[in-house]
Write a structure and sequence with these properties.
single chain, two-stranded antiparallel sheet, 9 helices, globular
């Protein structure tokens, strides 16, 4: 059988760049990346690390320097309180509660596939209007030496960099783009008693949420009692979807799609919606705890009957 001219290119690993929020990543990102490295023919060639990232999770910054990381976290939290007072207050309880396993911080030094990658440290450059640009020299280095870039950090990206890698820049969106856009991912589906929530892996463009869909899944959340449970189910899908998307990029027959229309752009909840969240979460936890006690009590009763 004669080889075709395309064979060498098909056999060459896909060169992947990763945009990271800092020196640590949540465990789910680590698992998504390691799964992609294990299951697809890729080589991670570049890591672009935001060296000016705001603290987002207390446990992440406790894992860093002390007391510097804690002081930075407190400073950032004060700014968030000013901007979104009611919603930020609900976040206090979440931050000091037990960190879900998928949010546990992992050092990027421990991520399989990262050891041979070139590391570039930089800060995002504010774009005109909204969003961020990568510094020109970083964009040039990464954009011309990768086949695809995966965005896990640097916020809303704009600029020529989005089209420089062969297959563009991929990013996750926890929502159905035709129904729920914006943030926080999965929250508004939870508040509105939706039976499902979407997860989308998108090739992003300068149109907010308007890029091409590389892979998407629907997640059953009908019995999810809390927003955290919605998040857990969506993130479990994210861990699988990156490898699916990368395989599709190597498939010459694959055609990405674009949303027929874009849904409502949601933002951080305020006022009555914060109250709705607090009440729905409290009731959900109460129902969940009651079910747990009933189940455990039944098991214990059964054990007593046997003895």
């Amino acid at each position: 059988m004669h080889s075709t001219p395309e064979s060498p290119a098909e056999e060459r690993p896909l060169r992947v760049g990763i945009l990271l929020p800092g020196e640590t990543v949540p465990a789910w990102m680590e698992r998504a990346i390691e799964r992609t490295v294990a299951e697809t023919n890729v080589e991670i060639t570049h890591l672009v690390i935001n060296d000016d990232a705001d603290p987002d999770d207390l446990s992440d910054y406790l894992a860093g320097s002390f007391p510097g990381g804690v002081l930075e976290y407190i400073s950032c939290s004060i700014e968030r309180l000013r901007a979104h007072l009611l919603w930020s207050l609900t976040g206090v309880a979440r931050q000091f509660a037990e960190t879900p396993d998928y949010h546990e911080p992992r050092s990027i030094d421990s991520v399989a596939g990262f050891s041979g990658a070139k590391r570039l440290y930089c800060q995002p450059v504010p774009a005109s209007g909204f969003g961020n640009l990568l510094p020109e020299e970083v964009a040039e280095e990464v954009g011309t030496n990768t086949d695809v870039v995966v965005r896990f950090g640097f916020g809303v990206l704009k600029g020529e960099f989005l089209t420089m890698p062969t297959h563009g820049v991929l990013s996750f969106h926890r929502g159905d783009l035709e129904s729920y856009r914006g943030q926080p991912g999965g929250l508004w589906e939870f508040l509105n008693d939706e039976p499902t929530a979407g997860v989308t892996l998108q090739r992003i463009s300068e149109t907010l949420d308007g890029g091409e869909i590389i892979a998407e899944r629907t997640v059953d959340i009908a019995d999810a009692r809390t927003w955290r449970e919605v998040e857990r189910r969506q993130i479990a899908v994210c861990e699988q979807l990156l490898a699916v998307g990368v395989r599709r990029l190597r498939d010459s027959t694959f055609e990405p799609t674009t949303p027929d229309s874009l849904g409502t752009l949601y933002t951080m909840p305020t006022g009555v919606n914060v109250a709705r969240y607090v009440c729905k979460t409290a009731l959900g936890k109460l129902c969940r705890d009651r079910q747990t006690r009933t189940r455990d009590g039944g098991q214990n009763h059964g054990e007593r009957d046997v003895t």
